[in-house]
Specification:
Distance between the termini: 67 Å
Oligomer: single chain
Helix content: 10-25%
């Protein structure tokens, strides 16, 4: 079976060639559809207006599956020399040197990455194109990690965290991960460094777990969690990443990490893999995070109030 002749897809002033567009990346099994590299590229082209605002200026870690999601996985940080010169790069510090990440600023870059069988885009929580620089995050993420595929505890934990963040006057937005859990994303003004942000997230999670010790935990070791949901804040560190909104996950059926409006979280049919590349664009068009304030908040007042709540 042939993988097809190369396909050229226009993106603004550029035309990006997709090699072997018929190559199966997501084998159909267990009732899930089969999707090809061409399908992945078409999805990223169509969702680009909604995805790119979440990627611009952010270093990426690329999750590549050249032989499909059943084959070897490559987690790529450094940008290969053969990547086109028109792709934006960001050189950031690491222990003992630097690393040059891809930054996805346009649709053409998205298509090129799809051609490289990059299924999932993992983004930094800080930006390199702002005065604050890569050491000051403008996103805080709570990763709600359930012990199994039951989504009910995820809903409950999201409600608990939303209420607590509400007490701290910090708006948060939910997003399915396309895997098992949910991310709560808190926009920040980028004034604090990663250490301060991670400590704040840890303190919030500790308070939530203290209020609901039978349901929630901050225990890093799996054997210490029991059947409680893990409130993971480890992504809030320099050079750590979180899956980007509207990115595809390397699982059967090509599920997508999808932002939600809060009322949707209570709908019975919603779970972590509810949306796929077949219908995630429809969800994107509803602008589910429209209620987030245009101006991000600082952590100063929230930290002071949190200290009072913990006393």
């Amino acid at each position: 079976m042939t993988d097809g002749a190369p396909r050229r897809i226009r993106a603004g002033r550029r035309a990006v060639e997709i090699q072997r567009p018929g190559k199966i990346l997501f084998p159909g099994r267990g009732g899930t559809p089969e999707y090809t590299k061409g399908d992945l590229a078409e999805y990223y082209r169509s969702v680009a207006p909604y995805l790119l605002p979440h990627l611009r200026g952010r270093p990426l870690m690329l999750e590549r599956h050249p032989d499909g999601v059943d084959g070897p996985r490559f987690m790529q940080k450094n940008t290969p020399e053969h990547y086109p010169e028109w792709i934006t790069r960001a050189e950031v510090a690491k222990e003992g040197g630097t690393v040059t990440h891809v930054v996805c600023d346009d649709t053409a870059t998205l298509l090129f990455l799809a051609d490289q069988a990059c299924v999932t885009l993992h983004r930094w929580l800080s930006r390199t194109d702002r005065a604050a620089g890569p050491g000051r995050p403008d996103r805080l993420v709570f990763d709600l990690d359930p012990p199994d595929d039951d989504f009910a505890p995820v809903r409950e934990a999201a409600a608990v965290l939303r209420a607590l963040l509400g007490e701290l006057a910090l708006p948060a937005a939910p997003m399915t991960t396309g895997s098992r859990g949910l991310h709560l994303v808190v926009p920040l003004d980028g004034r604090q460094g990663f250490d301060e942000v991670r400590q704040f997230a840890h303190d919030v999670a500790e308070l939530a777990a203290a209020r609901h010790p039978d349901r929630l935990t901050t225990a890093v070791r799996k054997e210490d969690r029991g059947d409680r949901l893990y409130l993971d804040v480890q992504r809030n560190a320099y050079a750590q990443t979180a899956v980007a909104p509207y990115t595809v996950r390397a699982r059967p059926g090509a599920p997508v990490a999808v932002p939600l409006a809060w009322p949707q979280l209570d709908e019975p049919g919603v779970h972590a893999r509810r949306w796929t590349i077949a219908d995630a664009l429809e969800q994107a068009r509803t602008d589910p995070w429209a209620d987030l304030p245009a101006r991000a908040r600082g952590l100063g007042p929230a930290r002071r109030h949190l200290a009072e709540l913990r006393d």
